[in-house]
């Protein structure tokens, strides 16, 4: 079966370690596990879904792709989709809000083990995800920002480790700040332009709001010109 995998999920796939068993949390169509198994990039996967409709879509796609032996679809909330004996080596949580991702990780924190890699792709509130990782014994080992359908997406990859992050690293990403890719610069230049327009619309009497906006603008300017 031809999977309809998006460029965003293809970019996520790049960070799944070769030959692991993957847990994909929130796997509404199971596109990522199907793609990885079809390409022989992983041995097997669990596609976890909490909602019945998306679970059924995942089940249908896995059955139609003939991969039922290697991709197991489980109806489960977050990390409840796996047990230690499943031997999960990587966990992807993609396409949902950053805060929800941290809630899922917190609820299953006692199940995470040192050998597991986390591949997270929040649709927003990336700073929440980074703060959570730093506070819970994970170090960010790679990051990517990509654009699809005019929207920017960040991918955050972490493994067990100690990492203290500065406020700028939490907001912009430690690896993204250092790499400053063209897409990173485009993302923040777009945000900067929006904030500068917003600033012209805040009355000068409203000093508190102006100050907060100026601080955000200055932080972006600093990040864009950041030298490691
Ligand atoms: N991961 C896919 C992607 O990136 O394209 C699907 C993203 S879809 C927008 C988010 C999916 O996560 C939904 O199908 C939703 O039901 C599922 N979801 C949300 N919270 C979940 C949880 N706690 N456990 C498992 N799945 C969850």
TrEMBL record:
InterPro entries linked to this entry: SAM-dependent_MTases_sf (IPR029063), TrmK (IPR006901)
Question: Under what name is this protein listed?
Answer: tRNA (Adenine(22)-N(1))-methyltransferase
**Source species:** Streptococcus dentapri
Upper classification of the organism: Bacteria, Bacillati, Bacillota, Bacilli, Lactobacillales
